[in-house]
Amino acid sequence: CAETSQWTASGFRHAGARSMKTLFVIWHSHTGGTAQMVAALVAGARGVDGVRVIERRAADATAEDALAADAFVFATPECLAMLSGALKDFFDRSYCDLLDRVNGRPYAVMVCAGSDGSNAVRQIERIATGLRLRKVADALVVNTAAQTPERILAPKHIAESELARCRELGALVANGVQLGLF
Fold this sequence. Notes:
The chain has six helices and eight strands, in the order E-E-E-H-E-H-E-H-E-H-E-E-H-H. The chain is α/β, with parallel strands linked by helices.
């Protein structure tokens, strides 16, 4: 049986007996910024054949969801220079169930930051290291420069250029997992 391959607008497509891969996006948003980033990431990932994208708010995500996934994207707002409590709660609820059961699975991180987002990224990366996940992309941080109470609490609007970066990250992770690159 000959297999064929072709390049498509959404990436490389390999025809043959390839099982559907699952990208699991776990996220939280306070003021809409992270939600916009996730929507763009999901749109980019869904453009890749052979990848099913499941996205869940952190409060609704379970260890069972994560165990069924081939790759992860963790998305959070920066909250007091940390990851959101809701995403931390997901890790608290799921960590022991995932430990030694998701080793080597790829992950990426997105942060909607009011300052620099680096500590939120660092916290997620430390948790992912403990779970023995494999980072496959630099963290994508969108800085909204929200530094006053009014700007912190205000609904966010993410620029199209930043949303394009989110779509690219979604396509990158989905293509990589679909092709077996990571």
